[in-house]
Amino acid sequence: MWIKNVPLVGRWVTLIPLAMGHSEALKNAVQDGESWRLWYANVPKPEQMDDYVADAIVGAEQGNVAYAVINNQSQQIVGTTRYYQVDGDNRRAAIGYTWYANSARRTAINTEAKLLLLENLFGQCNAVAVEFRTHFLNHTSRGAIERLGAKLDGILRAHQIMRDGSLRDTAVYSIVASEWPAVRNNLKYKLSSRM
């Protein structure tokens, strides 16, 4: 496996490889804010969580590492994120399937989780590029991706059929290796302002 399925530990968050034992905590997390009600997001309902976690574990066996996100202060699981579309031959991966409990939003949690994921990709795996994808109309997600320092590559028109039958235009962003030092400095600066 190009990306090792190991915990990533920071000051505010710890990312641990997703396991079936995390399903109940994730059910609780997703109920805080009811993110599955956002029509433009693919967040599981509580009753879908067991299947969501099982599918992520199967994906991890194929190299798409999924994590439970733990708030280090409360020691509670507050969401999930993962690497997907992992392409070790071309040293590229996407980061996504990220969602958090409402209580974790607008905190250092997402910033540090992304820093840990990116440090692992660029530092340990010598990645060439990382990609982020989101619904064109998900302005919250697009803003968060742009604040990371990712650049818009383009829009994939009518890219996916959503669960409500609507067609999703997908905004594709990336960070390439030459941009990583500046992106890392920016993320560390954002986190230092929270100390």
TrEMBL record:
Q: Is Transferase a UniProt keyword of this protein? A: yes
Q: Record keywords: Transferase included?
A: yes
Looking at the record, the residues that make up the N-acetyltransferase domain are: 14-151
Q: Which Pfam families match?
A: Acetyltransf_3
The record's InterPro entries line, in alphabetical order, gives:
Acyl_CoA_acyltransferase, GNAT_dom
GO MF terms here are: acyltransferase activity, transferring groups other than amino-acyl groups
User: Which UniProt keywords are given for this protein, alphabetically ordered?
Assistant: Transferase
User: Source organism's superkingdom?
Assistant: Bacteria
Kindly provide the name given to this protein in its UniProt entry: GNAT family N-acetyltransferase
* Protein source organism: Pseudoalteromonas amylolytica
